[in-house]
Design brief:
8 strands, EC 5.1.99.-, eight-stranded mixed β-sheet, single chain, Glyas_Bleomycin-R_OHBP_Dase, Ethylmalonyl-CoA/methylmalonyl-CoA epimerase, alpha+beta, isomerase, 133 residues, 40% strand, 23% helix, globular, MeMalonyl-CoA_epimerase
Length: 133
């Protein structure tokens, strides 16, 4: 793993959260995107080397909608940049981690992504990210 790629925050209303975080960071989001396969709309902020991803469910079947229903708004996941997502997935699986998807998926911000089950990571949802070249 290279570094923390971003921190994901689940929100009920993306527009309201963008306004709040724009005020907090004194900066506008650099990108807004919908990921149809995950049923989410995202908004990204970058403060120096730190990226924050706000996630809003686009329907009730979204993992984000279910997360908010169960836990409320707030910290959802931490994402780590990797150089080769396939080899990192294999390494972590060999180490006993449970992957939530067998193959990388196309995620937001031009990334291939894979998630690790939080039961094996002290309750934290971990995302692996590789830039799509």
């Amino acid at each position: 793993m290279k570094n923390v790629e971003h921190i994901g925050i689940a929100v009920k209303e993306l527009a309201a959260a963008e306004k709040l975080f724009s005020t907090l960071f004194n900066a506008a989001p650099y990108k807004r995107e919908t990921v149809e396969s995950e049923h989410v709309s995202t908004s990204f902020f970058q403060i120096n080397q730190t990226k924050i991803e706000l996630l809003e469910a686009t329907n009730e079947e979204s993992a984000i909608a279910k997360f908010i229903e169960k836990k409320g708004e707030g910290f959802h996941h931490i994402a780590f940049e990797v150089g080769d997502i396939h080899s990192e997935m294999q390494r972590l699986q060999d180490e006993g981690f449970t992957l939530l998807n067998a193959e990388p998926k196309i995620g937001a911000d031009n990334k291939l992504v894979c998630f690790l089950h939080p039961k094996g990571t002290s309750g934290i949802l971990v995302e692996l990210c590789q830039e799509i070249r």
